[in-house]
């Protein structure tokens, strides 16, 4: 299994996270590197998959329930894998695979388990010995991560639990209940993991870190906004670097598309933009500073077009995002 959100370096190198279920260590989380295409002196062309390699491996702590993941974080010097307590039950997975049942039914939420942040050096694939934990939460998407003054800042769109996975069924989307509406609410949150021994809170952030009696660093989060946000995007030139603005949407009930929003990570202010009931927005151009609409594309379809989970945009001239 692999994430839906790989990371791409400016030179075109792609990194992704995947789970392996075979091997002497049992299930492991792996960072896989896909270098850009290159031509050898003899003229042979190697594509990214020809050159793929595993650059880091982390054993799963729950051997029979490796965690579900959708994204991971990367800074200039580190990979950050977030091991959350929504596990894919191996016995159920095998049973349901052969009986034709849905994979989602094989997932177990473990409410009494903490979230683990695995911090890995990019230079040598070494997992830092310091253990980082946080009170339980669930997430699909990473907003961004970066380093500052020897500390790693990790921004995620967090749910209080894993209920959303078993709520995004067609019957709940078409006939939403309050349980459904609550389950899809994600809050942009910031965590801080010290790469060294410094536990001092960074200026301008309210999140903090404490070390318990076992030496485990407990990461206490800060909400980047009091409002909800999911499907986050940033200016990708700031991926892995200090940034200020994140963009996404505020989920609304049922089939409505939601409201586009912008969150200022420094001031915790939020700007709201387009809200179009009964429309599924496919392309709208907004001024990034004012959030005023500049252009809107509309078109008719032969039938109903449902909302998608997320998309990925790249220009023809972009090498960075041409996956």
When the domains are counted, the total is: 1
Q: What class do helices, strands and sheet pairing give? A: mainly beta
Residue share in β-strands = 35-45%
Within the largest sheet, what's the order of strands?
7-8-11-12-17-16
Looking at the chains present, what oligomeric state does this protein adopt? single chain
Give the overall form: globular
The total of helices stands at 3
| Total beta-strand segments | 24
Element-by-element helix/strand order: EEEEEEEEEHEEEEEHHEEEEEEEEEE
Largest sheet: 6 strands, mixed
User: Which blocks of ≥5 consecutive residues have pLDDT under 50?
Assistant: none
Query: How far is the N terminus from the C terminus?
Result: 17 Å
Gyration radius, rounded: 20 Å
The level of helicity is under 10%
Average pLDDT over all residues: 85
What features would you describe in this structure?
The structure is a single chain. The strands form seven sheets. A six-stranded mixed beta sheet has the order 7-8-11-12-17-16, with no helix packed on it. The model has no long low-confidence stretch (mean pLDDT 85). It starts with 6 loop residues before the first strand and ends in a 26-residue tail after the last strand. A hairpin with a 5-residue loop joins strand 16 and strand 17. The chain has one domain. The protein is mainly β and 323 residues long.
